[in-house]
Every structure is written in C-alpha cells, then in structure tokens.
Amino acid sequence: MEPTPPGAAVSVRSVYKRYSKASPWILKGINLTVEKSTIYGLLGASGCGKTTLLQCLVGRHFVDYGQIQVCIDEKKLLGHMPQQVALYTEFSIAEVVRYFGYLYGMAARDIHRKYRYLSKLLNLPQNDEQLCGDLSGGQQRRVSLAITLLHDPQLLILDEPTAGTDPVLSSIIWTHLIELSNQGKTVIITTHYIEEARQENVIGLMREGVLLEESDPQSLLLRYNCAGLEEAFLYLCSRQSKDKAENVEESDNPPLMVQYAPVLDSPLISDEYISWARFKAQLLKQFIWIKRNLLIMSYVVFLPLICMYTFNCAVGLFPSSLPLALINDETNNCSQTVDRACDLTGPMSCRYMNHIKETGKIQLIHYHNSSEAVSAVGHKNIWGIIHFTSNFTQSFLNRFKMGRDTEPFDIYHSNVYLSLDMTDYVTSFYLQSLMYDSFREFYGDFLEACGKRRNVSNSPPLRFENPIFGSFTASYSEFTAPAVICLIQFFLPLLFTTSAIIQDKLRGITERNLVAGVTVLEVTLSTILVQCGMLIIQTLVVEYIQYVLYGHPFHGDPWLTFILLFLQGICGTMLGIFICFVTKQEQLTGFGIMAASIPIMTLSGLIWPLEAQPEGLRWFSQLLPITYSIDAIRALTIRGYSFYHPMVYMGFISTICWSCALTLWSYVQVRLNDGAP
C-alpha cells in the first residue's frame, strides 16, 4: 500500500468497494491524491465508479478494503453538490438557502449576506420567494451550487456543477473555483466536458472502477503525445482493454496485503447523534413542508372525519324495507283484519302480515304461486319467500288450544314457511332474527289480548337477563367502532410518514442532508415531533365524532383512551419510518404498506372475533401491532375497565413494544445501509 503524501487534502490508498459479496467490484484498487489548494478533476463515463468514490469520500459509504484520509474532520467544512439537483421543490429559494444554512450552524445574518453575494455571482433569480419547483433545470443547478458554497467550506466536492449552464455562466463559475483554490480551498470536481478539464490542476481518468492515470493536463498530453485530452483518454482506455485481454486470468480481488491492512473510517463518518442547530433546521423543514402542502394536511385532518362519517352511515345499521315475496294461500283480502283484539275468526296470516308491515323493515310483495316467487327472488332483488298455507288460521288456533296434543296436520299448516336467499350472510341472518322476533312479538300480543301471560310465547326454557356489558340492541358498529378508530390512528401517520420520507429519498435530498451532517436520529425525532401535533388533533377528532357526535357507548377513562390511541399513531409512524428505511423505491414502499395493511385489517379482530380463527392463526394475529389495542379500546369504552385490567394494559404493552422493536429494526437497517435510511 502506497504511503500518504504529506500535506495532501485527500488521500485514497488501494480502495476496493462493492455493495454486496455477490456483486462485482465497483472500485478496484484506487490510489488517488488531491493536494491542498488545487482543483482535481475526475473524468470518466457513467458507471465507472466516480459517484461511488465520491460517496466514500464524503463518508456516505464504508470501503471494503484500503484507506481514505481527508484533511477535514467536520462535515460543516465540506461542501458537496450531488449529481441530482436535490432541492425541496416546495420551498422558495430563500427558504431552502436558510434551511441549509441552519444545517451548517450559520447565523441568519451570515446566511443573508453570503446568499446575496452568491446570488449575484451565479445570476440567481432576483425573486428569492420563487419556488424551486418553478425554476428551470439550469436555475435549479445554480441554486444547488449556491447552497454548496454557502457556508464557505474548506473542501468542495462538486458533481458536474456546470451542467445546464451557458458558456458565460460556466466561465464565471470556473473563475470563482480558481479563486477559491487560490484562497486555500480544495476542489474535487467531476465533469463530462473533457476539454473543460484543462482548467484543472490535476485530472484523474477513471474507467471500469480503475484509475487509469492521474496527472496535470499538460503533462498528460506530452506523455502520450496527444493533441487533446479526449485523445489521451481514448488511448488509455484502449491500453486498459488490451492489458485486460492479455491477462485474462488476473483477478479483480484485492491482494492479501491490502485485505489484511487496516481499514480507516473516514473522519466524516461522525459519531455525533444529534445537534440542536441541525434539529432546528429539521423542524423548520417540517413546518415549511406543512405550509406548502396544505392540501395533504387537509387530507390528514379531514380524512378521519370522512372515515368516521362513512363508517357510521354505512356499517352496523339495520337494513330497512327489505322486499320479501308473499304467498298467502289463505286469503287475498286483509283489509278487515282486527290486529289487537282476541279475534278467533279473522285470518291470522293477515294479522301477522300487518304486524310485519308496522315494523317498516320488510316490504311484502304478493305473488300467486311458488314459481313466480322463486323467479322474482332470482331476478328482482327479493330476499326470500313467506308462505302461509290455506288452513293456517284454523291450524294455528287448534295448536293454540291443544298445545302439546296438537295433531301433525295442524302443526304442519300452522307453521309460517320462510325461504331466504342465503348468499348474503349479514342480510339473511338479520331477516331470520327479524322474522323470529316479529313472530314472537305477534304471538305475545295475541296472548295478552286473549288474557294469557305473554311469556308463554317464549317456547325455550331460557331467559335472557339484563346484559352485564352492552345492551340487547347493540349493533355490529359498536363492535367494529373501536377497531376502526385504531386502524385510522395507525395507518394515517404511516401514510403521511412514508410519503414525506420517500419523496426526499427519491429526489436525493436525504443523501444531501446526511452529507451535510444530518443524522437519522434527527430525522426520526423531527418526524415524530411533528406527528405528535398532528396526532393530538387527529385523536381528538375521531374520539369526538365517534363518541360524542354519533353517541357510541363510552364508559371508561377518556384520558387512557386518548393516550392509547396517541401511542397507536406513534407506532404507525415508526412502521412508516421502518418501511422507508428498508425499501429503496416508491413502488416497493407501496407494496410494503399493502403487505402490512392487508393482514392487519383482516386478522386483528376488526371484522370478526379472533376466537373464530384457527389456533395457529390466532397466535399470529395476536402478534399484530393493533390487535391488543383494539381489545383494550373495546374494554375501555364498552366495558369501562381500568388500566389494571389485563385487556387494557396489554394494549399499552403491545403498542410500546412494537414501537421499540420498529425503532431497533430501523437502527439495524441504517447500520446495514452504511448509515443511510
């Protein structure tokens, strides 16, 4: 391994780098020296390893073998302009400059003064309140360069700073870079314009992860007797290809002396976890983002309201005016029927039909025979058929008088025959219950009118006393309401968090922030802090709508319920952060959200009780993030349990454990990604 020259600003010695053990080497034995107060140009085609080398220099990646040393020991002394524009398009020019100035610990006065100077130098738009997203591509790159130069760094690493600029502005930028090098600054620059590299003190030519040559431009031309740098580069490329063909068996793997040499971490990989200046900048970014995305914020605030409204209007309500086909072989005229008296002469089928109509829940449609009724069920959205036999009244009265001694003929003809369309479980089950209850009510009224005790109509020897919890009239919505609240509290923060973080990753802003010194802890804490404010509003909204506006039962401690729902939102936020740290693309993030949401919605007891699941699946369901929380909210609101009941405190324990586990997994993923989310 070559020694590091004294006084070098950057020294790279025998560096090898690949992204996994199965992938090819991206950097193969790079030896590179950048002297202080010079401009070093790195030239090479796309995919040759330039960006990977720069990421290692700025501390974004560890090297597998070799050593990297730089002359600075703080990230605020580094100015990095990435290949992507990496700007917040929702921010104005002034806001994005102020944000990065705060990241580097600059005072507001210094930020304003330096920006005015760079604005004139780089010919930035005069209106600094113009949004970055409204700028042209060239203007965005100039703003990006201004941010890089804002804090007066000692080491500049610029990835194609003159791309998209006209020749006049390009000349101004180069003049300024030369002036900076004369002031003692060191500049490392990549460019596709080979002839532009003549203005650099030293150039390094890269191809296929190898540094072909490192020299000043004039010496390079003289050494290879070439008229231009492009000709020299082509000569070196052809020589590399020829050497590679002659040494087919030569391995790209590092030699043993390099493999066993100590790997020096870049001093730019800092162990500082949090800085108040950077954290303040993160909070500023969050609040500006909220201000610029009022539509998304309205979505976050009003979506719970819409969800609660649609849920209470569409779920758990009993159907009404359900059409049933009626076949009454006993009579076609029910107009003279007496409903309340102990009338033993009128048709009892009419009396029962009138009782059904009074409920307003069933609409009876007359048909003459079974074939017409069956056809109507199949084609006219009718839910079933009620059939009274021709001898219904007489058989009914005989059964009433004879009791257990009733003849089989009277038993058969005194029954009301009901055939239902059972393809819709909820509606058919409701119709069965409704018909049973309505007949029992009808028979009880008849008994009372005839001077009998009403409870004789309860044929089974079973009496339901007052419920311990809930009520006889409890609806399905009372069962699902706590689960829907937990679901909203969990998934809305998840969606908001993933959308914000993944956008920054895709636009290269996350990478730029991390190079500027931002830590994952600062990103996480600022995200959680902003989410806390939103969660307070969201929790109050859903609780007010569900329990005050719509009057769902609430018998427990409102503060315990609020805290548990709030913690559920934090858990959803942490899951969103974890998904963003694991996935690299927007599509994969969407798949990750779907992979999490489908089992949570179907298995956590939202739709159906866990007790109905097979034992093995039930164990898995209980491990989901919101399962115990749903049971806890039900126990708090419907049963009025205190915190010390197992159903309640298990909801808190599960939520906190999931949040801690997701935090730990996110940290492990960051470490696996060389410190990048």
Strand elements, count: 13
**Poorly predicted spans:** 256-265
Biggest β-sheet: strands ordered side by side in the sheet:
5-6-7-3-8-9
Our estimate of the beta-strand percent is 5-15%
Global geometry:
elongated
Structural class: alpha/beta
Gyration radius, in Å: 38 Å
Q: What's the N-to-C terminus distance?
A: 33 Å
Number of helical elements:
23
Q: Could you report the average pLDDT, rounded to the nearest whole number?
A: 82
Characterization of the model:
It contains 23 helices and 13 strands. Mean pLDDT is 82; it is low at 256-265. The chain has helices spanning 50-57, 93-103, 108-121, 137-149, 167-182, 217-224, 229-246, 256-259, 276-292, 294-314, 348-359, 370-379, 392-402, 408-413, 425-449, 476-506, 509-515, 520-549, 558-582, 586-603, 615-622, 627-639, 646-672; strands spanning 8-17, 27-35, 39-44, 65-70, 78-81, 155-159, 186-190, 202-207, 210-215, 322-328, 362-366, 384-388, 417-420. It is elongated. By secondary structure, the protein is of the alpha/beta class. It folds into four domains: 1-72 and 154-248, P-loop containing nucleotide triphosphate hydrolases (Rossmann fold, 3-Layer(aba) Sandwich), CATH 3.40.50.300; 91-152; 280-313 and 475-672, no CATH class; 322-457, abc type-2 transporter like fold (3-Layer(aba) Sandwich). The longest helix has 31 residues, at 476-506. The two termini are 33 Å apart. The protein is 52% helix and 12% strand. It has a six-stranded mixed sheet with strand order 5-6-7-3-8-9, with helices on both faces. A four-stranded mixed sheet has the order 11-10-12-13, with helices on both faces. Helix 11 (348-359) packs across helix 15 (425-449) and helix 16 (476-506) packs antiparallel against helix 18. A hairpin with a 2-residue loop joins strand 8 (202-207) and strand 9.
